[in-house]
Amino acid sequence: MEKKNYIVAIDLGTSNVVVAVAERAGDGRLNLRCVVSKPSQGVKAGMITNIEQVSNAIKSAVDAVNEKLGLRITEAYTGISGEFVRCARHTDHVFTSDPQNGVNRTDVEALFERMRNVQAPDDETIMERIPQNYLVDENQEVADPIGSFGKRLASTFNFILCAKTPLERLNLALRRVGIRSLGMYANALATAAAVLTPDEKEEGAALVDIGGGVTDVAVYYRNVLRYIATIPMGAGAVNNDIRTLGIFERHVDNLKRKFGSALAELAPNTMVSVKGRTAKETKDILLYNLAVVIEARMRDIAEYVAQEIKDSGYADKLAYGIVLTGGSAQLRHVDELFRRVTGMDVRIGTGEEVLEKESETATESEKKEGKEKKEEKINILPDYATAIGLLYCGAEHGDCAVVEVPQPAARPQGPKPGVSTPYQPAAATGTAGTAATTPAAGYRPAGQAAPGPIPAAERPAATAGTTGVGKEEAPAPEEPRTTTEPHRHKRGLLDKLKQSLGWRLDDFFTGSDDEEI
Q: Which has more confidence, 402 or 160?
């Protein structure tokens, strides 16, 4: 059997946990095989507060994937987000080894080694070290310093830091369900890998991921991650505000997704009925009032995002504006609200952009080879953007250990209760010179009265090698007999049984009318 290479991603959020599995093809591209989302509890603003609830949520999603794909997942890539994730900059330099021949790769490696020696505070760990730029002799900024002439090579690195406690709790939750983490990434970094296009990264764009408990912001410019931040406010805050209208929590999210709007002036002035405490009790809500509540909180989030973009120092350099993703990106008119608050262009990203390009490449190659591949279409939602991004980040490091569970072979179904199976005569056995014979069904010694119908409680169950009432038996091969051939009745016993039992045994008889019983 051909060995398949899998990449597994687990995105643990405040309201949902998403598990995605992709298969790496021979040419290196990723084929998305399955995405499963399950509700999660025990997470508040990205921090795990109840390990038991989180472990159960992860197990539920992983089990669903295992059952669908016939796998047993043991390794995965994961993401993390919260106020405890931040970025910090550090600048350092080295002197070039051969100024006459320009900067070489050894000089760049020496600069990277100095950056690797930078230590994080005691309660934090460094997740990523990303070079922002290179300066040669402090006056020439270049993207690739190799070959440039100068005596001094300097660079500013962007360090992504995360508190140790959240990382340890996430690792613990994964170990409790038998999964080892091969790598953890900041969600803002992973989501950008799936949502932002190469042009957006090059010309400048801000990724805004509105999750259940937090909102992540990542700023890209000149194909480099320049800034990340986390706002401790998300869709959960909007839901809490909607509950003040007297809506039960179990109906809030569905009401928001189906009828909500981020701009009250664009909401219809109509009424909708929401279920109450009982099946007969309902509550009428004016959609305009619902939109007023949603807009107030979403405007707060948009203003916080605008401030973070200004703090990054790249607000006037983002030619492609803002790309919204996450569950709340599906809210009506949310893009227009962010456009009005920030004054930037806004579009909705789902992660489908990267997958579509790979699918187009795959289709072209399959057409050249004359192959046609039919797979189930997976509907990519903004909720899945982070999980898909984790797949691409993990694919750069290596495959995950996944055990393929062999599917059990189809077994012949045994007899159902109350239904007999056709009799299969056993092979004749016996000692030398003695032939084993099988008496014909319906045989009765002379002088013995014909048996009456057997009560249902006293009828023995049919077993292999025996026949029950009304069971069909194939005629035995002709053998030499030492006794007189018994008289064979044609359908006499069958007619009597059917008449006495009221035709209730019709299902037990499979022979045609011409066969002997």
A: 160
Q: What is the number of residues in the chain?
A: 517
Query: Three-class SS of residue 105?
Result: helix
Distance CA 123, CA 4 (A): 40
Distance CA 385, CA 32 (A): 13
**For residues 478 and 107, what is the distance between their CA atoms, to the nearest angstrom?**
97
Which residues have CB under 8 Å from 123's CB, separation 6+? 163, 164, 165
Helix (H, G, I), strand (E, B) or coil at 152: strand
pLDDT score of 28: 75
Q: Is 99:150 a contact under the CB 8 Å cutoff?
A: yes
Mean pLDDT over the full length of the chain: 80
How far, in Å, CA of 517 to CA of 509, rounded?
10
Query: Which three-class secondary structure state does DSSP give residue 142?
Result: strand
Which run of H or E residues covers position 121?
none
The distance of Cα 131 from the centroid of its chain, to the nearest Å, equals 33
pTM of the predicted protein model: 0.73
Q: How far is the C-alpha of 273 from the C-alpha of 262, rounded, in Å?
A: 20
Number of CB atoms found within 10 A of residue 360's CB:
10
CB hemisphere CA count around 108 (13 angstroms)? 15
Residue 259, pLDDT score: 92
Query: For the stretch 54-66, what's the b/e string if a residue is b when 16 or more beta carbons lie within 10 angstroms of its beta carbon?
Result: bbbbbbbbbbebb
